[in-house]
Write a structure and sequence with these properties.
Blueprint: H1 13-21, E1 26-27, E2 38-40, E3 43-44, E4 47-48, H2 53-58, E5 63-66, E6 77-79, H3 83-98, E7 102-106, H4 111-122, E8 128-130, H5 140-146, E9 154-158, H6 166-174, E10 178-181, H7 189-192, H8 195-202, H9 204-211, E11 215-219, H10 223-228, E12 235-239, E13 246-247, E14 249-252, E15 256-261, E16 264-271, H11 276-288, H12 293-302, E17 311-315, E18 318-323, H13 329-341, E19 346-352, H14 361-372, E20 379-383, H15 385-388, E21 397-400, H16 403-411, E22 418-423
Parallel strand pairs: 1-2, 2-5, 5-6, 7-9, 7-10, 8-9, 10-11, 11-12, 12-13, 18-22, 19-20, 19-22, 20-21
Antiparallel strand pairs: 3-4, 14-15, 15-16, 17-18
Helix pairs in contact: 1-3, 3-5, 4-11, 4-12, 6-9, 11-12, 13-14
């Protein structure tokens, strides 16, 4: 792992780590600088953190780590070859300094919900530090590792990716002891180059864990996971039917998922059969780390989704399923099938475009429309330029090129006593629909 480390011009990474241990953490944003932090001057397409080094120090940062010499105007600036790589190297050094067991998660759908469920379960027995929100990229992963301290007993690191070799890179930074892949779905097809590319890219976590002879958690009912890990010994999985694995069964999911494990029923606040595996892996990992089943049950039953992820919201006489944090063909299909199977009411689906599908975008959006034509929904609103290009001869399916066009339709209609599913990619911001209801 020394290949990851970038030496600083005036000190080595272990010296920087000593400064870090005497600080109040790290920051990459001068808008939320705290006293005695290390400020890392990162760069992006539209910003250069080096320009804010002096501001960070004036606001209380003990040091500013920069990578452009012309901004070295203070004894409190430390010049390095690359501020981002230094941040990543410091995070890996700190991770090995603490020797905290790390669980890493990736997958096409459900990463953040799964992470929060695992955190809830393990927090019943351990001091946990987990990725905040979905800060799961080449910056978020180092920041998560650097938020851990000597009191941290288990770390949970979420890893996101939209192209090959990204999970491999993040794994080399976090160096996990355990890992789990939620699923392999049609997400980020543009960057991965199709579903096979998704499978290959997400499996980079398996590759790291197997090469390092670390432990793998798995959903043994997922054919891809089961095949890839068929000969690997250091694994612990769950299944609804395979007696070789820990038995966790779904009892029902209309609307909330209810689970049976060791003759105990666990009732969740999560809707949809697609959330069963997210709950099941949290139970499995809790069992592995010797959390009492009664505490696991309590943690699962207390967890409530937030941040536009499968939230149940009641507005007037309408019951809304708000799932507008993100969407891809796999998660969209699962959400629609689940919504269709809920007890019959006046059902309305409001769906937004799915992004990052590349050349598959036109066909994948049409596939969703084809599915919609087979469902028993009462009214369907499709919003966005991609859905606008789809074809359907069904009168209850309407397409709108933009949210503003869709809003005009709502201004002329009153929706009451209905069940409403709202789902789309983050860029569509379909949570705006709540203001219209």
């Amino acid at each position: 792992m020394l290949g990851l480390f970038y030496y600083i011009y005036f000190m080595r990474i272990e010296q920087l780590h000593k400064l870090y241990l005497n600080s109040n953490g790290v920051s990459t944003d001068t808008r939320n600088i705290e006293k005695n932090v290390l400020f890392f001057a990162l760069k992006g397409e539209n910003f250069n953190g080096n320009q804010y080094a002096d501001e960070a120090i004036k606001k209380g940062a003990s040091y500013a780590i920069i990578d452009e010499s012309k901004y070295s105007n203070s004894n409190n600036t430390i010049l390095v070859k690359d501020a981002l790589k230094t941040l990543q190297s410091l995070a890996t050094y700190h991770r090995n300094f603490l020797k905290v067991p790390i669980i890493s998660l990736t997958g096409s759908n459900g990463k953040t919900t799964t992470k929060e469920l695992i955190k809830s379960v393990l927090s019943k027995k351990y001091k946990i530090v987990a990725t905040k929100g979905n800060l799961n990229n080449h910056i978020g992963v180092p920041l998560t590792l650097l938020s851990m301290d000597k009191d941290t007993e288990i770390g949970i690191v979420e890893m996101g990716a939209n192209h090959q070799k990204e999970i491999e890179f993040l794994s080399n930074i976090a160096q996990p002891d355990y890992g789990y892949i939620t699923n392999f779905g049609k997400a980020h097809l543009e960057g991965f180059g199709g579903l096979e590319g998704v499978i290959k890219g997400k499996s980079e976590l398996y590759d790291y864990l197997l090469n390092a002879k670390k432990y793998v958690f798995l959903n043994a009912d997922d054919a891809i996971q089961k095949e890839k890990l068929s000969t690997y010994i250091k694994k612990f999985g769950f299944s609804q039917s395979d007696s070789d694995f820990y038995n966790i069964r779904m009892i029902e999911f209309k609307p909330f998922v209810k689970i049976s494990v060791e003759n105990i029923e666990i009732s969740s606040n999560l809707i949809g059969a697609y959330n069963f595996t997210n709950i099941a892996i949290a139970i499995l990992i809790g069992k592995y780390f010797n959390v009492e089943l009664k505490d696991i049950k309590e943690a699962i039953e207390a967890y409530t989704p937030s941040n536009n992820r499968s939230q149940i919201i009641e507005k007037g006489s309408n019951k809304i399923i708000l799932d507008a944090y993100n969407a891809n063909p796999t998660s969209m299909e699962a959400a629609l099938k689940n919504f269709n199977e809920l007890p019959k009411t006046n059902k309305i689906a409001i769906l937004g475009d799915m992004f990052e599908l590349g050349k598959d975008s036109k066909q994948e959006h049409q596939n969703i429309v084809n599915l919609l034509e087979t469902l028993t929904l009462d009214k369907i609103f499709l919003v966005g330029e991609n859905f606008y290009l789809t074809e359907s001869d069904k009168n209850h399916i309407g397409t709108f090129k933009s949210f503003d066009n869709f809003k005009k339709e709502f201004d002329n209609n009153s929706i009451t006593e209905s069940s409403i599913l709202i789902k789309g990619s983050r860029g569509m911001a379909l949570e705006r629909t709540l203001d219209l209801l």
